[in-house]
Amino acid sequence: MTKGTQADVNPDLKKERLKCNFNIQEVTFIIDGGKDKTLQRKKIEDVALNIAASIDEVPEECLNLKERYDNAVRKSCVYSNIVKNELLEITGLEALGSPGLRRTADAFFKDVSPFMLHLGMFVPTIIGQCTPEQQAHWLPKALEMQIIGAYAQTELGHGTFIRGLETTATYDPATEEFVLHSPTLTSTKWWAGGLGNTANHCIVVAQLYTKGQCHGTHPFIVPIRDLDTHEPFPGVKVGDVGIRMGFNTADNGFLRFNQYRIPRENMMMKNAKVMKDGTYVKVARHEKLTYGTMVFVRVTLVMEAAFNLAKAATIAVRYSAVRRQSQPKPGEPEPQILDYPTQQHKLFICIATAHALQLTGLWLWRTFEAVLADMRKGDTDSLPELHALSSCLKAVSTSDSAALIEQCRFACGGHGYMLSSNLPLLYSFVTATRTYEGDYTVLLLQTARFLVKAWEQAESGKVLTPTVAYLACAAAKEKVVWSDSVDGMIRSFQAVAAGKIAACAENIKRLTKTGTSLEDAWQLSTVRLVAASEAHCRAMICQAYWHEVTRLTASCSASVKIVMEQLATLYLVYWALETTGDLLRYSTICESELNKLQLKYEELLALIRPNAVGLVDAFDFRDEILHSTLGAYDGRVYERLMEEALKSPLNETSVQSSFHKYIRPLAKGKL
Ligand SMILES: CCC/C=C/C(=O)SCCNC(=O)CCNC(=O)[C@H](O)C(C)(C)COP(=O)([O-])OP(=O)([O-])OC[C@H]1O[C@@H](n2cnc3c(N)ncnc32)[C@H](O)[C@@H]1OP(=O)([O-])[O-]
Ligand SMILES: Cc1cc2nc3c(=O)[nH]c(=O)nc-3n(C[C@H](O)[C@H](O)[C@H](O)COP(=O)(O)OP(=O)(O)OC[C@H]3O[C@@H](n4cnc5c(N)ncnc54)[C@H](O)[C@@H]3O)c2cc1C
Questions:
Q1: Nearest CA to ligand 1 atom 36
Q2: Is this complex scored with an ipTM above 0.90?
Q3: Among candidates 260, 191, 192, which has minimal Cα distance to 224?
Q4: Which domain holds residue 226?
Q5: What is the pLDDT of residue 202?
Q6: Is residue 139 one of the residues assigned to a domain?
Q7: In a domain, 557, yes or no
Q8: Which terminus of the chain, N or C, has less C-beta within 10 A?
Q9: How many domains in the chain?
Q10: How far, in Å, from the CA of 165 to the mean position of ligand 2?
């Protein structure tokens, strides 16, 4: 149910909505990336959600593991038909990862679809890594769901270190086939979503051998199960990896090969080829283009982090408007918990961060598209910067989002612990995003490589690429003059990042001068490098967020501009207060200015308070997508909690069989 009749709405929420002093729809347009995107999303939701509404008879969490998987496959098939027959007609193929499709999928699945990786990685890898002829062969089959694919890169022994993968693909010119083999236990493919029981095809990343020489990892399309019987082919051993913290309907699988043969044409040959006689030909201009799908997914994960955090913020803010607790003033009614400044402190940063990540994510997406356009013309010069950018933004956005979703759960007290609040499931899903598609630390260290090089270029006066251009000013190594204006705060965040990067570069230089190898000097500096990378990322988010707010609100109503700027300022002030140690070190900020900043923060909380419910309404989540007893639009929190409790299988009878089997015999001393 969504938005119901006004009569059904909790009176406190009704009052909150009357207090809201800006046009909610204008903010929705900004978050979606424009009015046309909002209209498209709503169209998609209308088509898909009519069907989703009646799709679950029993709450997913009350089913056992196998039933949940079967149910997820059933729903995935219904959803795929809708995507294939109706939604792609509306959005076009380029919108596969679009927010509209992503949000709609959540109406079908509280947990994760076993088909998620089919559209999320299998199809994008075909588009990114295949030649046009290969695409013509594989893409229609994949989009028509005649084949279902997974993406198996990670192994039992290696996830981060791709060059260390052990699965081999050895070319046999006699039969013009590749022989796939898993030589060790640790070479077993592990984790691929959809692989365990669902997929019949799989992209396998393996070490390519031809003419006795290893050419490193390359992707192959591998049929693993018979299309009719679904039995694994001889030479293929495949199964589920076991119960996980979340993702239990995502069918994460393992896969082993025993001298398993696939045709030569199944190597994905856009970036490198093996000719019939076994000659290896490198096509790509950049060494790391085979890592392209990961860059694509990292880019999309920034908006994914924003989306999930926006859901949690919606649930927690609406609940906090309905919930009343304690009596700070004797004789007065219990206040809404949203009136407590500490609650505002927990929640408003969640709304602001969702905005920051969404607007930065949209900007990153446009940057990604521009780099792709350059690469189609053969120019890969901007790839290192995109890799550095997408690595740190993926790391920080997923990490912030997971931490703040957990904060939303804390903000809902005991009821936040109920699965029916949807906060625990959201957390278990989002916390995995910090690890998959590149672990947090590892990705920040990738960005750090780029930053240290950029610092050296800044010191020698060379021209810097846009996202690190600020290092040029910092090369003077003087403390930046603190100002609590927006520009002043952004300059200070950049000074912190620059100072930290400079300290890393100096440390590496100092160590190597005294005889430490460059590799060891790098390792000894990694704790600082991660911190420097994070500081750089934070400065970039602050800059991109503010820039986008200014740009996008230029033609908005004055009240929307005000509330968007209040949120963005809150984000900056929050992070200034979180990093006071750094600011004291790299800017001229002093104690009185820190006190002023704290006051400014508290003023902002009070200013945002009347618009809090309006702001989460502007995320425009239908109840079918939120799946939350605490966060529904009408605020019937207690009624929904009771309704859900009564659906528990433990309430089907008033006495459980365990009473007769165990408790009664125990009481009678007969156990
Ligand atoms: C729903 C769930 C879905 C989940 C799915 C998954 O998880 S799927 C599984 C997801 N799995 C993961 O995400 C695994 C995470 N691991 C990785 O991505 C890689 O192993 C690595 C990037 C950590 C290192 O790779 P490496 O050992 O080959 O490289 P290196 O460190 O020796 O650096 C050499 C140079 O290459 C550069 N360069 C590197 N990558 C890129 C790039 N994409 N583009 C451009 N450039 C790149 C780098 O900057 C450096 O440049 P420099 O400084 O010399 O000028
Ligand atoms: C829910 C989920 C779904 C997934 N889906 C897929 C999928 O569909 N397909 C697929 O191929 N994979 C998938 N993965 C695997 C995922 O990509 C890897 O788990 C991830 O890349 C991290 O690798 P790892 O597990 O080997 O961790 P490790 O690399 O072993 O990391 C363990 C620890 O070591 C640290 N570490 C590792 N290397 C370094 C270093 N060089 N410097 C400093 N610290 C380091 C890390 O920071 C981390 O703290 C999935 C994982 C999860 C959890």
A1: 288
A2: yes
A3: 260
A4: 119-269
A5: 98
A6: yes
A7: no
A8: C
A9: 1
A10: 13
